[in-house]
């Protein structure tokens, strides 16, 4: 076994081993101290593993395959950094809880699924590990306090299962179209353009992955889940977990084949979500909910970039989209950790926490010389100068407005004790994430490389990035001076229509339970089996 295969095996093997060790109560209590170690093999794989070798687990009859491509390595490395630093935050968070076993198990399950999805090279492994990821993430949401956490977890899991049903149908059609019965994702993607079920397959895949990415109107799980999950769980979910769907879009879509109908439809939905997320986000008061709606907006913009690249058949889209997703992964994970640190910090000590937050938050709007400016520059050519490009500029202005709103609300969420300081582990993990979210995008931009440095720092490029941020700041200042009262909308917005359905579903569940109890009676079961047998025999006679 060569070095690459060893790194891939360790990347998924260590978190899985730690998860299995949680079966022992004594070992489970020691697991939070190992959170920081569990993602390190994944980081090593992202940095050192080759892109040619493949890890095969199984035999000729059935095997799971794992490999890394460049977009996957980029996202896996950034995710590993977030999981490591958020793990430090979670370790300190769990010290103050006596009921942390659930969070420990779900943390390791989610990490195992997340790393596995990033590495999966075949459709069976991808689908199985995506299901592990969904169950683990719903469990993380469940670790929040109160009945709303239970509801948010149930909605998250329900929509995840619905999305995976669409995905399963799409993967079956992909497998049927793949020559020689190959289940490798790269072979299925290559066969998709010539498949007789191409359009149906695309609709199924885009629907399933779009739901998991939080596309409007099936986005409402995102503010509900991120708002109720504990801070470290919300950080990894908003940063790393949601990127599994983005990486799946990058890997399953056939780059190089021009598909304007599907691409433009996807871009239109994404751009609408980019604006919608901001409009709802500015009505929220809690920083976690504002960040959640910012994720709705940013995922919409990212999907629009993917859609425009699909429409044009641009093979560079995969790398540009992965770069944008990597930056968002780092920044959004950092900002959620910032919320947790600031809430434990008194007003006298808040500025060392808030200044880095302001820099990286405005970077989402494209503040020059930040990673956000680089990602928007990398996506500029894909969106073009037409309507999509204009909406992208409006999105930058709106994102700046939303981030200023976030910073205002965050500064008001400090601890009651003005001299309080956040625990060193929590403050350190937040500041560490702030630093890497500034440094890593520049390193990726220069090392891959995505484009040349002189173009990114040219005066025209800097001004193109700066003026939307200035416009958003002026708009935020104007709204504040006018004292404009913005109506408050509930978290989940369109998801509130589910409330009236909950009583109906409970009543239906009770009815099905009574029917099940009745049908399991011995006499009823025998009669039902006899009737089914007679019906089956009659069907065979008619068919014959």
Low-confidence stretches at least 5 residues in length (pLDDT < 50)? none
- Rg from Cα: 24 Å
As a percent range, the share of helical residues equals: over 70%
Number of alpha- plus pi-helical segments: 23
Strand tally, please?
2
In whole angstroms, the N-to-C terminal distance is: 57 Å
What is the overall shape?
Answer: globular
Briefly note the structural class of the backbone.
mainly alpha
List the helices and strands and how they pair.
Layout: H1 3-21, H2 25-30, H3 40-48, E1 55-58, E2 63-66, H4 70-95, H5 101-119, H6 123-142, H7 147-177, H8 185-191, H9 198-213, H10 221-228, H11 231-241, H12 243-252, H13 260-281, H14 287-312, H15 317-342, H16 351-364, H17 371-383, H18 387-411, H19 424-447, H20 453-456, H21 459-482, H22 499-519, H23 522-543
Antiparallel strand pairs: 1-2
Helix pairs in contact: 1-3, 1-5, 3-4, 4-5, 4-11, 4-15, 4-19, 5-6, 6-7, 6-11, 7-9, 7-10, 9-12, 10-11, 10-14, 11-15, 12-15, 13-14, 13-18, 14-15, 14-18, 15-16, 15-17, 15-19, 16-18, 16-19, 17-19, 18-21
